[in-house]
Design goal:
The complex is a heterodimer of chains A (283) and B (290).
Chain A (H helix, E strand, L loop, with lengths): L5 H32 L3 H4 L12 H7 L9 H31 L6 H13 L2 H14 L6 H25 L3 H9 L4 H12 L1 H17 L2 H6 L8 H7 L8 H21 L1 H12 L3
Helix pairs in contact in A: 1-13, 3-13, 4-7, 4-10, 5-7, 7-10, 10-14
Chain B lengths: L13 H4 L2 H33 L3 H9 L1 H32 L4 H10 L1 H4 L2 H11 L6 H10 L10 H29 L3 H9 L4 H29 L3 H6 L11 H10 L3 H26 L2
Helix pairs in contact in B: 3-14, 4-9, 4-11, 9-11, 11-14, 13-14
The chains are: A mainly alpha (283), B mainly alpha (290).
């Protein structure tokens, strides 16, 4: 074993000089949230970098719903879960059907629909939110979970269709031909040939839609307002309504809320990175 | 990497041609759910919104509203300065993360966290850090210097800078990741040849990395600008548009008008942004469907 040369040490030191600030920059807001979650109120508000008496008491308050702001915690958690799941399922249904139709069945006008979808993808979601709010009012869906579910499906499906269409194009046409030879109907091809082959992309898109819906704040707070209908992020925003907000409980709830998407993201990271970069990287 | 969207219409799939009608019927049936969603939740709202914003008086009102002018300027600062700084950092960090070290691999896993966690709790966490009385930053300033720290979010310039910082914190990992894939696609032989010729790191970047990445970099920058126009959370949750409505951007301003029940003004403010958004969108679509 040879000792590292001076040049190698210098390179390593330079890399560390970048790596350490990057680590701190990334972790500080997250650590601060975690710190609040394990701190009693007086420690949290005194600017300590580690509490004198770390405690799980905040989590106990949240899980027992022992605070005014938390009295509907479970139902809000459930709302978030239900809406995210519904958006995932519906987006997969809408986008897979459309991608199959455009890519495999070559439906006339498919290219135009794809371009329209792509156009929607580029319209900033906050701009669409204003007319969407009014539209949901006209449809009589305000304060109904369906409003948020349908709005999120609208936002998630353009990208989903686009990625799934790209993935379908890569499947060999011969598969369909062979299935037709064997007398398979279109629906059988869809179910028995197409869906199994598309599984990796479907996992990526399903995850994308679920995370998008779980993380959504703007649409959720516009479309839902009743305390028992809102999702967790809206409930977190509502903490700010009071001047003396219990920030340690806000951060604890936020921490609990942030865990599932982080876990899902890391579990499906391989699919996510592949699927998402395929969409955004087009040089 | 480029998968063309065009060119597949000219060749009809031969096996389907014998049973064209059922396949086409199925094609229309399967496309119908998306078309319904598109008509009901994109076409109708957009047309209805444009109809609401039709009166010229709305635009006069907007023109006379100093908050609108301020929001337009803030949006420009956010896009022109904020996004370019973010993309330059992302370009730099993509080079850092492309280094083959096990600790850099681990760091890249951690680095993704801001993008993987929802933005609401983390932005609120930053908001409390900046709290002038109880926030950890001013506590630290006090314990080191004995002076009170600044009232961060009470100064419009500082508050907007912080909002841009939060935006960068949240979306930097995503763009860095994209640029890393671009960087890793460059043939390694080029760098080895440059090494042999004794090229400096700047020469390697200038003559190898940048020429192969510039298209990707420009695409990413434009895409990030379009999406940032819709970044509601960074501003709304950190500053709420304050102090005195001086840190609004167009996405929060539309929602502000909406909350004040001035829907036609909200729509008009969005219509005003369209001359800037649509060329970007057109350019992006051209690029992606090439």
């Amino acid at each position: 074993m040879k000792l590292p040369s001076l040049r190698e040490v210098a390179t390593e030191a330079r890399l560390l000089l970048i790596g350490i600030p990057v680590f701190l920059w990334t972790m500080i807001p997250i650590y601060h949230m975690f710190l609040f979650a394990i701190s009693p109120k007086e420690d949290a508000f005194s600017g300590k970098l580690w509490p004198d008496h770390p405690t799980l008491h905040n989590f106990e308050i949240v899980f027992k719903q022992q605070h005014y702001f938390l009295r509907d915690f479970y139902i809000q958690f459930w709302n978030s879960t239900l809406i995210a799941a519904a958006v995932g399922v519906l987006t997969l249904f809408v986008a897979t059907a459309a991608a199959f139709s455009i890519s495999r069945l070559k439906v006339p006008g498919g290219r135009m629909v794809l371009n329209l979808a792509l156009f929607t993808y580029f319209i900033p979601a906050a701009f669409l939110a204003v007319p969407m709010y009014r539209t949901m009012g006209n449809y009589g869906l305000l304060n109904n979970h369906w409003a948020l579910i349908l709005a999120m499906v609208t936002i998630a499906s353009p990208y989903a269709i686009w990625v799934l269409k790209q993935a379908s194009d890569k499947l060999p046409v011969e598969l369909d031909e062979a299935a037709v030879m064997d007398g398979a109907t279109t629906l059988q091809i869809f179910r028995l040939v197409y869906l199994p082959l598309m599984m990796p992309s479907l996992v990526a898109i399903g995850t994308y839609a679920v995370l998008l819906a779980w993380n959504e704040y703007l649409y959720a707070f516009l479309l839902l307002s009743n305390d028992r209908e809102i999702t967790l992020p809206v409930a977190l925003g509502n903490f700010l309504a009071a001047d003396d907000s219990p920030w340690e409980l806000l951060m604890t709830t936020g921490f609990i809320y942030a865990l599932p998407p982080a876990a899902v993201y890391y579990a499906f990271r391989r699919y996510m990175v592949g699927g998402l970069t395929a969409g955004a990287v087009k040089s | 990497m480029a998968i063309t969207l065009s060119g597949d219409q000219s060749i009809p799939a031969p096996p389907l041609s014998s049973r064209l009608t059922p396949a086409q019927i199925w094609g229309i049936v399967l496309l119908a759910p998306y078309l319904l969603v598109f008509l009901a939740f994109v076409v109708y709202p957009v047309c209805y919104g444009l109809w609401l914003a039709r009166a010229p008086s709305n635009y006069v009102a907007l023109y006379n509203d100093p908050i609108f002018a301020r929001a337009a300027v803030n949006t420009l600062i956010f896009l022109v300065i904020g996004i370019n700084i973010k993309m330059l950092i992302a370009l730099f960090l993509s080079g850092f993360f492309a280094q083959q070290r096990s600790w850099i691999k681990w760091l890249s896993v951690i680095f993704i966290l801001p993008w993987a966690v929802p933005s609401i709790p983390t932005i609120l966490s930053v908001r409390f850090m900046l709290n002038p009385e109880w926030g950890v930053i001013n506590h630290l300033i006090f314990s080191f210097t004995g002076d009170d720290g600044p009232n961060w979010l009470n100064d419009p310039t500082v508050a907007l800078t912080m909002a841009i910082g939060v935006h960068i914190w949240k979306s930097l990992p995503f763009w860095t990741l994209i640029l890393i894939t671009g960087r890793l696609a460059i043939s390694h032989d080029l760098f080895e040849a440059a090494e042999v010729d004794g090229a400096s790191w700047w020469q390697k970047f200038r003559f190898i990395t940048w020429p192969s990445m510039q298209t990707l970099y420009v695409t990413c920058t434009l895409l990030s600008m379009i999406w940032t126009l819709g970044d509601f959370n960074s501003v709304y949750l950190l500053t709420g548009g304050g102090p005195a409505d001086l840190t609004h951007v167009l996405s929060t301003l539309g929602i502000r008008y909406l909350r004040l029940d001035q829907l036609s003004l909200a729509m008009a403010s969005i219509v005003c942004a369209m001359p800037f958004v649509l060329p970007l969108v057109y350019f992006m679509m051209k690029r992606l469907s090439r």
